[in-house]
Amino acid sequence: GQNIDQPTEMTATEGAIVQINCTYQTSGFNGLFWYQQHAGEAPTFLSYNVLDGLEEKGRFSSFLSRSKGYSYLLLKELQMKDSASYLCAVRANSGGYQKVTFGIGTKLQVIP
Amino acid sequence: DGGITQSPKYLFRKEGQNVTLSCEQNLNHDAMYWYRQDPGQGLRLIYYSQIVNDFQKGDIAEGYSVSREKKESFPLTVTSAQKNPTAFYLCASSARLAGASFDTQYFGPGTRLTVL
Fold first, then answer.
1. Which end of chain B is more exposed for a tag (fewer CB within 10 A), N or C?
2. Exposed, middle or buried by CB within 10 Å (0-12, 13-18, 19+), for A70?
3. Distance (Å, rounded) from C-alpha B29 to C-alpha A45?
4. Which residues in chain B touch residue A105, judged by CB atoms under 8 angstroms apart?
5. Phi-psi category of B53—alpha, beta or left, where left has phi over 0 and alpha has psi -120 to 50?
6. Which among A28, A27, A32, A78 has a CA at the least distance from the CA of A53?
7. Is it the case that residue A1 has pLDDT exceeding 70?
8. What's the sign of the alpha-carbon dihedral B23, B2, B54, B102?
């Protein structure tokens, strides 16, 4: 099975930087996704990492260390609209199927 | 516009009644999925379909049924056997973007089902 851990809630200030961590334990690892989900809405894709290192995409960056089973999502220059839940999801080979398992999500509140 | 639609957004049913949630996509995606989301828990996979006329159970399939008669449609029936059906239900489809090495899941807007 898979086990994914991420903090339940975080608070950060507008204009600041915040790092949301995700640790996982799985066999057959084949990539890690980050999604953003505003309350009552559908998750939207942010990033994907399958190799170790940092992927940068505008204000958002995602890092992966496969040996440590660790990833983080870095949000820079925080804006009020960044208040949302951030879901870490791990993809792994499962009986010929690429199964994606989601963490519980980290609810980020951005305050003025 | 291309996308995934789920209807209705809010649905109320009495206990003991079956209810079917619709999911339609015009993205020409082969794979489709159903998840439920509960407070304090991650998205949990109910059923998935990788191709028309084929579907597989996910982690929590008990009390649910699906069909995939058309590529565009993947309806989910919540039966009276599902012991705790009140939840937020999300449908998704996936495809590999040009130049990408992975499939990306695209989610519909969700249906919030409340069983009274």
1. N
2. middle
3. 16
4. 42
5. left
6. A32
7. no
8. negative
How far does Cα B107 stand from its chain's mean position? Answer: 9
Give the minimum alpha-carbon distance from B44 to chain A in angstroms, rounded to a whole number: 7
Tens-digit pLDDT profile for residues B4-17:
999 899 999 998 89
In whole angstroms, give the CA distance from residue A8 to residue B84: 23
CA separation for the pair B84, B17 (Å, rounded): 13
State which H helix or E strand residue A67 sits in: none
Q: Which helix (H) or strand (E) holds A17?
A: none
CA distance between the termini of chain A: 40
Q: Which two tokens stand for residue A30?
A: 């084949």
User: Is the pLDDT assigned to residue B105 strictly greater than 60?
Assistant: yes
- B8: cis peptide before it, omega within 30°? yes
Pairs from B55-58 (Cβ < 8 Å, separation ≥ 24): B56/A97, B58/B33, B58/B34
Taken in order A47, B59, A23, A37, the sign of the CA dihedral is: positive
| A83 inside 8 A of chain B by CB | no
